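Appendix B, example 12.
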Amino acid sequence: MQTFTEKYDLLGCIQCGRCTGGCPVTVRADLNVRQFVNDAYDEEKLDELAKLAEIWDCTACHTCAVRCPKGLKPLEVLIGLRTMIVESGKVEPTVRDALQSVLLEGNPWEKSRATRLDWMEGLDVKIADPEEHVENLFFVCCTIAYDPRVKAVAQNMVKLLNKAGVDYAFLPEDESCCGSEVFTLGEEGLFEMQVEDNSDYLNEYQAERIVTLSPHCFTTFKTHYPDLKTPVVHYTQLLVELINDGKLTWKGELPKKIVYHDPCYLGKQGGIYDEPREILKSIPGVELVEFDRRRERSLCCEGGGGKMWVESESKKERLSETRIKDAKELGADIVAVACPFCVLTLEDSMKGLGLEEEMRVAEIMELLGELMEE
């Protein structure tokens, strides 16, 4: 059986400190990733380390992995410590309920599986059939399927696909969570079960590719699903293809100054930086500006890593608030994103700062839905 040190390759760490130096959470929480890696060498300290509140401050943004000169993933040490707590049963009720909901209903939001397709009401949606070949098989994130604020991402996608004449299908209601947040919350056994069950389920379909609406699903499939037979792309990659082929046109103009926020799961983890920007640049009238901290240096919104179910004990300014203030300094009218979690965290901070009359947070698909020709 592997020791903790072997499992997370702790002996490969050269203690350079670049992980902690780049970690965005360190500006608002007492999280020292390098120190955790160093202390985890001592197996006798693990129980003590796992009890520290700081292990739940990590957002799994992957900045530490991007900066590590040895190619390690220091964040997974923290996830490993979370696993120890989960296995002991001493997790916060919100974490426990989210994990139980994934097990019973296939989503972390404590919603009934029977309502997973309610977002489709009133739309002409093609539902996938394992017996029929389809070019683009769409996988809808749990948050997009159930949260009223971001369900427009899926709804507008359907309208766009129908208009562009794309061969597509969405999965039926037995679609289940990809397990992204299950993994980062440390429920190793449940995540392994999700990977196995979802791989078997998705491999039943005859699709040329799977298209995800969320960066969390995109990265999880690409990174943790070795037996998945079908290539996976993010929806922004598909849309760039459609734009370049002349299959998408926009209604009127959008004379707004837009700043694009790189989601950690799409950028740092998925390597997708250019496609969202190409989509925004294709919209007539748009003036696209950039954050100073962008692309692989993008500031995390703190929505990932299971943080939607774990409240930070820190009282310092949230990173999403910093992001909104940065957007205001740029004079941006719209903060555009390509991730449902980023929408929720950034919009919450925008409202908390009282800037909802001056600025808007919008998922790219929201903007495109408003621009599609009738």
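DSSP finds 17 helices and eight strands in the chain. The mean pLDDT is 92.
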